[in-house]
């Protein structure tokens, strides 16, 4: 998770480094962009992705080679970086104003900042084939009716549960409402089962609870309005926090969850995969991470959407999620968009067959083989509304404050009211 | 000492440089060659140390998200915000706590081990190597290792706590705001005490046996010999050790970042971690710049004062020739 931290060196070197780390990182890097079409119709562009693990690691180069074979005048210079390394490097090149031609984006607040700085190409007019893609998949990259990236993956968060442990506690069907969920947590505890696995150290898994509760109680529209008005103190948000506190008060999480990581040994995914907790609220990647970190629950693993809250404005069909897309630097060669069309639209079946991505093309969900992934894909296809993960949707300072404050609420250090005032303060300061 | 030096025959060429009478062209030429040899180092220092310091100070005066033009000048607002920031004030408090622990627990422990391993003892080289080994490990490897040791439920620390009857500690360690800093300190001590032990050992070796012998002939016991002979003669080493410990605690980052990322709930956050959080997670680069300036100022002020008032007697003579009076 951690990217190259400095080691303990002599005092002067380190105090120098301390300074270097922020502004110099901003000043260096990013020599790959600024490529112009050369003479003779030859085009070259840089493509930064995060495909350092399978299946993308072999699939992405395969697709780019297929494209350049069909278009010999085009050269693609690919750079694949690990997730965190990519984010650090992109931060650096963003501040220098020199983005690569085509780059991975998760949309939301970070992309918005890049767009506002005039660094990203507006794709709306050239991207006619966006009508072939699901509206849910495009949402994260749309601001004020304009589209700034092409999605290649989209997913959502829901409850992954262990059917065997639910049966052990005498629960026959997954809960449909928040009250039922709380009741099931009590039953699980009574049966000696840890109800929920949570990675308290990483904070973002905790924010899913508050975000979903806010969606269910205050409604989707309220989340957008609150961000625009920089005011999260509405009654709906306070109630969302109170509902989360109801859950926290039942002490549903595994022992030592405040220090637990997500995919690390003994973390949230391992606890789930080893059958030591009955459920986790996590994205579509949960089954594969469980297998890597703990074990494969196989047919015992099930999926249910986040339950409804009585009296809330939101619907069960509204999903919290996120995906991956590619954005273009302002002034990138137009062939780059042709490549993305080839990559996303013409190779949807290959992306799905690799079992690493979920469909962004309309009607493609039947092509998902794995049962768990298909359950997610179908929920997404039926979705009546979509909210991007709050820590990505909002400006980074606000998103991180959501994560921080909700983590404080879960640890019993903040009241639901304090959570909303902290987020409001961050929004006003950002 | 001075009588000894004077009775020695004077060297043919004085070490202190040419005589004042002949200083004209030769002095200029040697000055020019000194300047010439210094240029590469100065340029590097300027580009990679001084310029970034300037940039950070400048960035700290703006509200800047890291993208686009830096055009929102806020003056000292970042600094006022800093000193009202609960987390940052906590950083300062935790830094002080770690410094106090380092100096009062870690260093005495290292000194004790060094004194033990300075005795004639079977397998002494082996023990020295054993205690020094953790220092050679990378911070990240250490952190990952101890994350597993302190894993709730299954970690070694929990088994140990159970066996020792410390049931209250089980499942806490890194996962509880009240135990996380002491737990981190245990890891820091494990990693760094060997280094200080090596420094102390080197210092102990340089204490002549004759002095200790003379003391015991005069009737000094073990404790008296340690207190009145070993300890004062070890002074310079101890002062350097304290200096390195304090600077290390102020700049602590890697171990904490990997083990707790500053959590739970900021209870193990350090200044360097706050800076990283604001710079690379919240994209408030101006504010992060302000944190880096404060971190730097604390280090500089501390080291200047320390050098001026504590290290002065050890360093004088080492820097300027003929200054050792």
TrEMBL record, chain A:
InterPro entries: Bact_solute-bd_prot1, SBP, TAT_signal. PROSITE patterns: TAT (PS51318). Residues 1-26 form the signal peptide. The lineage of its organism: Bacteria, Bacillati, Actinomycetota, Actinomycetes, Kitasatosporales. Keywords: Signal. This is ABC transporter substrate-binding protein. PANTHER family: ARABINOSE-BINDING PROTEIN-RELATED, BLR3389 PROTEIN.
């Amino acid at each position: 998770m951690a990217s190259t931290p400095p080691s303990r060196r002599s005092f002067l070197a380190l105090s120098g480094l301390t300074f270097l780390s922020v502004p110099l990182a901003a000043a260096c890097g990013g020599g790959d962009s600024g490529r112009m079409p050369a003479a003779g119709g030859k085009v070259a562009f840089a493509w930064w992705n995060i495909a350092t693990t399978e299946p993308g690691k072999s699939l992405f180069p395969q697709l780019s080679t297929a494209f350049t074979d069909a278009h010999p005048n085009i050269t693609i210079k690919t750079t694949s970086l690990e997730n965190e390394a990519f984010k650090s490097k992109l931060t650096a090149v963003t501040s220098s104003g020199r983005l690569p031609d085509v780059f991975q984006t998760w949309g939301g607040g970070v992309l918005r900042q890049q767009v506002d700085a005039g660094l990203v190409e507006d794709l709306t007019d050239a991207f006619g084939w966006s009508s072939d893609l699901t509206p849910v998949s495009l949402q994260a990259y749309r601001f004020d009716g304009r589209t700034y990236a092409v999605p290649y993956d989209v997913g959502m968060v829901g409850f992954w549960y262990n059917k065997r442990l639910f049966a052990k506690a005498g629960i026959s069907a997954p809960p449909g409402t928040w009250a039922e969920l709380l009741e099931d947590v009590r039953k699980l505890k009574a049966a000696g089962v840890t109800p929920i696995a949570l990675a308290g150290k990483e904070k973002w898994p905790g924010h899913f609870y508050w975000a979903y509760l806010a969606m269910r109680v205050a409604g989707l529209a309220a989340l957008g309005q609150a961000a625009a008005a920089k005011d999260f103190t509405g009654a709906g948000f306070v109630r969302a926090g109170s509902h989360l506190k109801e859950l926290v008060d039942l002490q549903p999480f595994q022992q030592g969850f405040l220090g637990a990581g997500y995919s690390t040994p003994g973390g949230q995914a391992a606890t789930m995969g080893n059958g030591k907790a009955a459920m986790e609220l996590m994205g579509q990647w949960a089954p594969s991470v469980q297998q890597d970190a703990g074990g494969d629950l196989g047919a015992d693993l099930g999926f249910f959407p986040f339950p409804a809250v009585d009296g809330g404005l939101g619907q069960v069909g509204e999903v919290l999620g996120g995906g991956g897309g590619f954005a273009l630097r302002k002034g990138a060669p137009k062939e780059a968009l042709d490549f993305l069309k080839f990559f996303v639209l013409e190779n949807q079946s290959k992306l799905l067959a690799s079992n690493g991505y979920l469909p962004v093309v309309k009607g493609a969900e039947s092509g998902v083989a794995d049962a768990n992934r298909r359950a997610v894909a179908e929920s997404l296809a039926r979705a009546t509304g979509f909210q991007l993960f709050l820590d990505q949707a909002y400006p980074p300072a606000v998103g991180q404050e959501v994560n921080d404050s909700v983590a404080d609420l879960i640890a019993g250090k903040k009241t639901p009211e304090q959570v909303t005032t902290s987020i409001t303060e961050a929004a006003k300061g950002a | 000492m001075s009588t000894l030096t004077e009775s020695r025959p004077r060297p043919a060429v004085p070490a202190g440089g040419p005589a004042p009478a002949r200083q004209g062209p030769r002095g200029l030429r040697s000055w020019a060659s000194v300047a010439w040899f210094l240029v590469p180092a100065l340029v590097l220092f300027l580009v990679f140390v001084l310029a970034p310091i300037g940039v950070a100070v400048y960035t700290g005066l703006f509200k800047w998200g890291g993208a686009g033009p830096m055009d929102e000048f806020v003056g000292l607002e970042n600094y006022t915000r800093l000193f009202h920031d609960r987390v940052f004030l906590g950083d300062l408090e935790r830094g002080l706590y770690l410094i106090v622990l380092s100096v009062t627990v870690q260093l005495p422990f290292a000194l004790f081990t060094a004194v033990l391993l300075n005795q004639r003892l079977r397998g002494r080289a082996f023990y020295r190597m054993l205690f020094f080994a953790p220092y050679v490990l990378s911070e990240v490897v250490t952190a990952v290792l101890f994350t597993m040791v302190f894993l709730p439920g299954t970690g070694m620390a929990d088994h140990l706590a159970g066996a020792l009857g410390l049931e209250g500690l089980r499942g806490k360690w890194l996962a509880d705001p009240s135990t996380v800093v002491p737990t981190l300190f245990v890891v820091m001590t494990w990693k760094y005490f060997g280094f200080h032990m090596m420094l102390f050992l080197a210092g102990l070796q340089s204490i002549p046996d004759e002095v200790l012998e003379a003391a015991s002939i005069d009737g000094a016991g073990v404790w008296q010999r340690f207190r009145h002979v070993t300890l004062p003669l070890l002074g310079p080493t101890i002062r350097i050790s304290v200096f390195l410990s304090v600077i290390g605690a102020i700049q602590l980052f890697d171990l904490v970042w990997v083990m707790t990322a500053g959590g739970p709930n900021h209870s193990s956050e350090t200044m360097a971690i706050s800076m990283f959080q604001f710079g690379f997670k919240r994209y408030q680069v101006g504010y992060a710049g302000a944190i880096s300036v404060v971190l730097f100022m604390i280090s500089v002020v501390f080291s200047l004062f320390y050098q001026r008032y504590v290290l002065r007697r050890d360093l004088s003579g080492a820097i300027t020739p003929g200054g050792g009076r």
